[in-house]
Amino acid sequence: MPTGSILVADDDSAIRTVLNQALSRAGYEVRLTSNAATLWRWVSQGDGDLVITDVVMPDENAFDLLPRIKKVRPELPVIVMSAQNTFMTAIRASERGAYEYLPKPFDLKELISIVGRALAEPKSRMADSTADEGNENIPLVGRSPAMQEIYRVLARLMQTDLTVMIAGESGTGKELVARALHDYGKRRAGPFVAINMAAIPRDLIESELFGHEKGAFTGAQSRSAGRFEQAEGGTLFLDEIGDMPMDAQTRLLRVLQQGEYTTVGGRTPIKTDVRIVAATNKDLRQLINQGLFREDLFFRLNVVPIRLPPLRERTEDVPDLIRHFFNQAEKEGLPAKQIEQAAVERLKRYRWPGNVRELENLVRRLAALYPQEMITAGLIDQELATPAVSPGDAETPAEDNLSNSVERFLNKYFGTYGDTLPPPGLYHRILKEVEYPLIGAALAATRGNQIKAAELLGVNRNTLRKKIRDLDIQVIRSSR
């Protein structure tokens, strides 16, 4: 039987009774109190081997008590319980030095397991942590069991540099999670740099990530810093990692293995100190089976996997999200709104193909377009009855052509740089980016016949052969 003395503090007598019975049956000595003052007296006297405490108590908040406990007894594990169940609750519990955070209601078997694990660990593991009041501008919203588990995982990761892989459908908030890991983690003083693999031309990705030297390629008129250099000492967020070309995957793997890289056209290895957070809305294991993603890179990135559930799997979070987005809209100058319960229930039954992003757009639309203060179920039915435009469709005009597609791509590409400009040599890089699929399509249409492909393209055969070599296009001949 396990042994140890457990100090329990909770102003709810029912919780104290349940914990007393469960811990006593597990073989522990249990002492119960309903206030923080008694708990502090016991701890300061050296009593107890572990503390289980609620956050909110009549005389003091546990988050105010925790730093004092860790100061006088840094080795004492403290398990924090809370019915508030927000992202910031989990983060503050971690920042104040709690061993574990448990949202109420909790599973007693899980609690007993955590108690046993905490008591079995070496006391030297219970290190001090720096207290930080945190920011009330909560980056993640939701109290569902799925989100609670994500909060707990994030809280454990804040004081580590472990590589994280975030998987989830478009619109679930993958970049918000990456930013939370940075903003509340040990690298918060460093830069947060994001790069979207799907928004960068394939021939530019290596230069974007690792930088290039003057003269490394046509148009490279000066040295340019890559995202690794920009993120030094901070966090590098690799969004849509499944769209990374194979050559860039190989170079990224080398960085993860060796902790250094070379710029495009450079020869001197550069040491790097960044935390990598990757994200994808694709099934990387399927891409591995198709030969489109390196398995060894997947395992290097997938150290801590986090799956963000689609909104349809956590509809109980819809009311909190609605309030959050209405509050945001009001702070931005839009009229204050209220929403009737029937309207909320209607929104909870919706499938949300665009996930949280779709809900946010709907709430902003409701705040901006409707004069009435109360949003009714009728208005919601009216909005949801309108044919929804998917994020992809929203960018596609009725009459599409190559010029429009290129223009949209360039607008998105320049947008990733904000107020700065892309590296020099853009003209030649974009032409090369267009040449690759064009020549590939011509070769595919002519079954690899270079003579016919040259005629189709209207170029000289020698010119086509040179392009095939320069672009490293694989030509496969096949009979009709």
Automatic annotation (TrEMBL):
It holds the Pfam family Response_reg. Its main location: cytoplasm. Gene3D superfamilies: 1.10.8.60, 3.40.50.2300, Homeodomain-like, P-loop containing nucleotide triphosphate hydrolases. InterPro entries: AAA+_ATPase (IPR003593), AAA_lid_NorR (IPR058031), CheY-like_superfamily (IPR011006), Homeodomain-like_sf (IPR009057), HTH_Fis (IPR002197), P-loop_NTPase (IPR027417), Sig_transdc_resp-reg_receiver (IPR001789), Sigma_54_int (IPR002078). Residues 140-368 form the Sigma-54 factor interaction domain. GO terms for molecular function: ATP binding; phosphorelay response regulator activity; sequence-specific DNA binding. One of its GO terms (biological process) is regulation of DNA-templated transcription. The modification 4-aspartylphosphate is found at residue 54. SUPFAM superfamilies: CheY-like (SSF52172), Homeodomain-like (SSF46689), P-loop containing nucleoside triphosphate hydrolases (SSF52540). It is found in: Cytoplasm. Keywords: Activator, ATP-binding, Cytoplasm, DNA-binding, Nitrogen fixation, Nucleotide-binding, Phosphoprotein, Repressor, Transcription, Transcription regulation, Two-component regulatory system. The keyword Chaperone does not apply. It comes from the Bacteria. Residues 5-119 form the Response regulatory domain. Member of the two-component regulatory system NtrB/NtrC, which controls expression of the nitrogen-regulated (ntr) genes in response to nitrogen limitation. Phosphorylated NtrC binds directly to DNA and stimulates the formation of open promoter-sigma54-RNA polymerase complexes. This is DNA-binding transcriptional regulator NtrC. It comes from Hartmannibacter diazotrophicus. The gene is ntrC.
